[in-house]
Amino acid sequence: MTTQQNNSDTILTHAGRMGDDHFGAVNTPVYRASTILYPNLAALEARDARYTYGRRGTPTSESLEDALTLLEGGARTMLCPSGLNAIALAILSVCSHGDHLLMTDNCYGPTRSFCDRLLKRMGVETTYYDPLIGAGIAKLMQPNTKAVFCESPGSLTFEVQDVPAIAAVAHGHGASVMIDNTWATPLFFRPLDHGVDLSIHAATKYVGGHADVMLGYCAPWACAFASIRKAPPRLPAGCNRIRQLRACFIRRLNPIPVTPYGSVISRAPPASSALN
Known about the structure:
Layout: H1 3-14, H2 41-46, H3 59-72, E1 78-80, H4 83-92, E2 100-104, H5 109-122, E3 125-129, E4 145-151, H6 163-172, E5 176-180, H7 185-188, E6 198-201, H8 204-208, E7 216-220, H9 222-229, H10 242-253, E8 258-259, E9 262-263
Parallel strand pairs: 2-3, 2-4, 4-5, 5-6
Antiparallel strand pairs: 1-7, 6-7, 8-9
């Protein structure tokens, strides 16, 4: 077991606990809340409370965010109700009317639809690039290119991109770099360690793993946190999904063939066992 794997397994089994705040409970209880009460008017006007409204987070969502932040190595994690919502939040945090986006051609299908429909309507131009372009992406950079979007491995075709080379070129032109890291997960690739500013994940897939949750998240590096914090409001998931994160550790110990939509636990019976 490598040091990195050992650290990841430790995070998966221990991170995100708030036992001291919840009477020793191993996992943070599920908080269902909208309005948060303040002890007095001064506290309300100070605007520095840890929790201010259910949509902005609760101890439940904060526990999962803290654990994911440690796995990703970012400044903070922001939960979203789906992977596509996380992708949209990330792109809209840097792209506005008149801007240009470089999008990998092997992107997740709904990401392409978002670019071709909503971004186009907003006046954001999208150029799709060969995922294996590497440093050659320099020839596609424009003065108004605000972001380069990667996905490695890519959806369905699984090209592995030269992320550090792409990031170096993008930063040299003043553009942000973001990646859909759903397929690799932070267990096998930590984008923020390789020049990426923002790691995006459809946690519906491997973090959930049981086809019973819709969840996404953005994990920005410190330099990208300010812009994503000012982006359109996100809707963090309200249910307790820290158990899915714990399950990732079990799946590492006892691997089961998986697809991004859940574990494959059934197999066709051998021919000798077929009923006559």
